[in-house]
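Possible regression after last week's pipeline update?

I re-ran a chain I had predicted before the update to compare outputs. Posting the input and the new output here so someone can diff against the archived version. Not blocking, just want to make sure nothing changed silently.
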Amino acid sequence: MTKFQGDRNELMGALCRIAVQAGAAIMDHYATDIVVNEKDDKTPVTAADQDAEDIILPALALAAPGIPIVSEEATAAGSKPEVGPAFFLVDPLDGTREFINKNGEFTVNIALIEDGIPTMGVVYAPAKNRMFYSAGSGKAYEQDIEPNATGSLDTATKPALLAVRKADPKGMIAVASRSHRDHKTDEYLEMYNIKDFLTAGSSLKFCLIAAGEADIYPRHGRTMEWDTAAGHAVLSGAGGRVDEMDGTPLKYGKLERGLDNPYFVAKGGIG
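New output (post-update):
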């Protein structure tokens, strides 16, 4: 078996509901004084990360029995990643620094990987009520939905189809990490005529390109597969792409790298 064999529309709905539930748990912490701890790799972690993961993992196992799940916090706690022809990648709280700084630019990321490709994914920003999701090529959408503990989508706005825009070679818009922009990124972008920069945290950078609000996002810093997979799925569904710096499509399930990504660039409608 190389791909998920169930009802894909049903699974997409389940992923969205799970993300909304996890977002509600995160927002419960967001309204309080946030206690920050440090993982072995020196990155920050909060109780919200763990509470969101505790919602996502059993719900995913119920929605898609038998599909392995690789999640950031479980892996950090010592769980050995298991990948197969199909598996889930989960970041229960992407943009922990943005969460700690309370700027709203953090997301719940859930992606289905099939044969190394993110074919389905949801990126939910609970502080902004913005949900981006994709079930495949031409099937990327955005909805507004408030976080709620039941995962109900009844109050969601009508889905808006996402599509990358055709970049204007005379003046493109680049999006860069709010917390991790560096000189290598600026040097890379000198190859393009950039008229404006947007800054964003977490997987929202991919989603801004998918929504036609930006054109390009290069990343010359360390990321893990769970950081990028869901946003990659959304961008691909909207007509964009994510490549390594040599033009090779970014793939997933790279156990030989410890699920670490090489440097990459996400693009919209750039020829």
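Follow-up from reviewer: compared with the archived run. The first strand starts at residue 36 and ends at 38. Marking as no regression found.
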